[in-house]
Amino acid sequence: RSVTLAGVALAVGLVIYYGVDEIAGAFLAAGWQGVLAMSATHLLSLVLCGFAWRTLQLESPRRATLVFLWARWLRDSVGNILAVLPIAGELVSARELSFHRVGRGMAGATTVIDLTMELLSQVLFTFLGIAILVAEKPGAEGIGLGWAVAGLAVATVAILGFAAVQRAGVFRLLEALPEKLGLMRGWRRKPDLAGV
To answer: Is the pLDDT of residue 176 over 90?
Structure first.
């Protein structure tokens, strides 16, 4: 109950901080039809992402489709609320999958694959947007097109590096590292934390 009240207080505080008039103006400019269209579009993309993530699972839990849709909803929600923690949404969703009898390794692996595909699709979508901008507005260099292309190049290299790291088995090394450094002894003495 206190968390709900804190969330409502935060929402009210953000509305006051950014200006009631500005936020009301944005809603009025979009209209109810615009807000509903944006919400429906977001919900559709969320559902499609949940279905896509579900296809990566080899052994399905009961009600697998609902489980993956819920995990995807959690992932996006936590990722948006806790944006200062870069992978908070991914961690929460993988943990949620483990509560629904998806093995922790499989939950983590499918989360990493899903994240990689999401990053790749974002780069392709951005590339498509830049191509449309150049085709429609040939003189678009003055609006920061060079910076957009440079950012896209950096993002592409980063995503290719992320995929190469996965192929090289770095995650297996990171998973085994705490054991090799002796950091797991304290965890073993607490059986209620064994699944963490």
So the answer is: no
Q: What is the per-residue pLDDT across 112-151, written as a single tens digit (0 to 9) for each? A: 888 888 888 888 988 898 888 888 877 766 667 778 888 8
Are 145 and 130 a contacting pair, CB within 8 Å?
A: yes
Measured CA to CA, the distance from residue 92 to residue 176 in angstroms comes to 21
Q: Alpha carbon of 74 to those of 88, 91, 92, 98, 121: distances in Å?
A: 10, 10, 7, 14, 20
Distances from the Cα of 150 to the Cαs of 14, 137, 147, in angstroms?
Answer: 33, 19, 5
Measured CA distances, 50 to 65, 169, 177 (Å): 7, 26, 31
Which class for 141: exposed (0-12), middle (13-18), buried (19 or more C-beta within 10 A)?
Answer: exposed
Q: Measured between alpha carbons, how far is 8 from 194 in angstroms, rounded to an integer?
A: 35
CA 189 vs CA 34, 178, 182, 186, 192: distances in Å: 55, 15, 13, 6, 9
User: Contact 127/120 with Cβ under 8 angstroms?
Assistant: no
> For position 196, what pLDDT does the model report?
53
Whole-prediction pTM? 0.67
On whether the CB atoms of residues 140 and 169 are closer than 8 A, the answer is: no
